Amino acid sequence: MTSAETFTSFATAINQHDIEALAALMTPDHVFIDARDQRVQGVEPMKAGWRGYFEMCPDYWIRPNDVVADGGVVLAAGEAGGTIDATPWHTPAAWKALVRDGKVTEWRVFADNKPVLDILARRR
Prior knowledge:
Structural class: alpha+beta
CATH architecture: Roll
Order of helices and strands: HHEEHEEEEH
Shape: globular
CATH class: Alpha Beta
Largest sheet: 6 strands, mixed
Number of helices: 4
Radius of gyration: 14 Å
Oligomer: single chain
Mean pLDDT: 97
């Protein structure tokens, strides 16, 4: 599988909320870095993280419209969205994936989190 194909498989697993497929596409030292530079490392912590995010945003989706791969580096731009607390949101987004041997070793998200943070702030 090429790096771009691995990226696409990972994005598809996100859109299907398939935590086991995501885990199967992660290296043991996988690291997730969000738009606020918060990091989560390891397959089991990421499975818990994805599970929690999908519970909070049950229809979360990403649309990487433009994908460019060079060796083990994949960059993509598009949008992400979903619904939290019955409030729909979406935002421009970009992703950087580092791929090694057909698995994602790093998944980095670049997005404006304000729509999500605004929804979560109303919970207080």
